[in-house]
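Posted in: Protein Modeling Q&A

I'm a second-year student putting together a small comparison for a lab meeting, and my supervisor asked me to include a predicted structure for Periplasmic L-asparaginase. I've never done this before, so apologies if this is the wrong subforum. The sequence is pasted below exactly as I got it from our records. If anyone can share the structure token output, I'd also love a short note on what stands out.
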Amino acid sequence: MKRILIAAIMLVSLGTFAQTANNKQAILNVLEKQRQNWNNGDLEAFMQGYVKSDSLLFVGKSGPTYGWQKTLDNYKKSYPGKAGMGTLTFGIKKVDFFNKDVAFVLGSWHLKREKDEPQGYFTLLFKKIKGEWKIFVDHSS
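Accepted answer (user: helix_wrangler)
Welcome! Here is the predicted structure, written out as tokens:
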């Protein structure tokens, strides 16, 4: 009986580990797709990684912005055209799960542009909505 219980616990643990690994990869895939879209100069496609809602929260150097459209508008003002957007790279430092549907991501960003190379850090909260991971809070500096 003891062996059966241990085997059952191990199977549940392996299943949980596999699910976490799959979810982590799905989140990394969202970020990679965003990076590719940014580098293609397509802000609308880049924004597909965010929840398309008025409850989206983006916090940057100017303070909080609420809403998907307002966040997109701010990106368009701050990064005009492909030259203003440059080439984006990420350095993902940590992906932690609060539960099966909410994750925290810590990372760095770097833009290479013709005249400068701004960089900083970000923290993201992802939520799994209808089977898809979406950013619902972004604090970038």
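A couple of things worth pointing out for your meeting: Residues 2-39 form the longest helix (38 residues). Strands lie at 57-60, 63-66, 87-99, 102-112, 119-129, 132-140.
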